[in-house]
Design a protein that fits this description.
Elements (H helix, E strand, L loop, with lengths): L1 H32 L8 H21 L1 E2 L2 E2 L1 H28 L12 H5 L12 H143 L1
Antiparallel strand pairs: 1-2
Helix pairs in contact: 1-2, 1-3, 2-3
């Protein structure tokens, strides 16, 4: 594609040059025809041989108007039309082939390049003074734009630095917030642990109180049982004492009876 584009661009340039040169040849032929030149002059013969193949058919179609040969003027108009129609079309096709996406490469133009720019002079070209004034204004405009661009770049750099600092600050704040959240969660966990310990302690105290109450009731029961056993033991001892007293009295009475019997026996024997 690039080779074909370059071929078309070269063809358009060569064709533009040929048309431009042939236009000046026709102009020279028209100017010479006004002064009755020597027909045997080589230059005159060259101009006639070069222009007659084009002017003769036009002269046959148009003829003479107002006593003038209008064929050179018509030929010049045809050449200008070819320059704008054919040459420009070839250049546009070459550009489109060279840039398929339709995007042209932007060249970096400086104010010095604009001031030193030289345009080719062609037939019916632009006014040089006007072009120069426009280029000077354009150079000033580009220079101002470059200054503004430099200032904007500096501002952009400063802004990017501020953005970087803000991002660092944001990162620090985010880390601090995460640490605070973690600490708050730890505090909550600690509160939960304390509350759970308090609940466990309360349960242990309650169980201890219940156990103490049970022990106190058991101790009271044991004391009652001890008192009952002591009372039973005392009653048993009293029973034993009464039994011993009864036995002692019986033994005393038996001894007394035996003594009386002996005494009675002895007295009877003595009689």
């Amino acid at each position: 594609m690039f080779v074909m584009s370059n071929v078309l661009q070269g063809t358009a340039t060569v064709l533009d040059t040929v048309l431009w040169l042939y236009m000046w040849v026709i102009i020279a032929r028209a100017l010479i025809s006004w002064v009755n030149p020597d027909p045997w002059n080589p230059i005159v013969q060259f101009l006639e041989r070069a222009t007659e193949p084009v002017l003769t058919p036009i002269r046959r179609l148009v003829g003479w108007r107002m006593g003038m040969d209008l064929s050179p003027m018509i030929a010049i108009l045809i050449l200008v039309f070819l320059q704008y129609a054919v040459v420009q079309s070839l250049r546009d096709i070459a550009v489109r082939m060279h840039y398929p996406s339709g995007k042209r490469c932007r060249m970096k133009i400086t104010p010095i390049d604009i001031q030193q720019m030289v345009f080719q002079v062609k037939f019916r070209g632009y006014d040089r003074d006007e072009v120069n004034r426009f280029l000077e204004e354009l150079a000033l405009t580009v220079e101002n734009l470059n200054r503004e661009n430099s200032a904007l770049r500096e501002k952009l750099t400063a802004t990017e630095q501020q953005v970087t600092d803000l991002r660092r600050t944001e990162t620090t704040l985010s880390n601090t917030l995460v640490s605070a959240q973690t600490l708050a969660e730890d505090v909550k966990r600690s509160d939960l642990i304390v509350k759970e310990a308090e609940l466990k302690a309360s349960e242990i105290i309650r169980q201890a109180r219940v156990s103490l109450s049970d022990m106190q009731r058991g101790l009271a029961d044991l004391q009652k049982q001890r008192l009952m056993m002591v009372e039973r033991f005392r009653s048993t001892l009293r029973s034993f004492e009464r039994m011993l007293e009864v036995e002692e009295s019986d033994a005393y009475q038996s001894d007394a009876a035996s003594v009386e019997g002996k005494l009675t026996g002895e007295s009877s024997t003595a009689r």
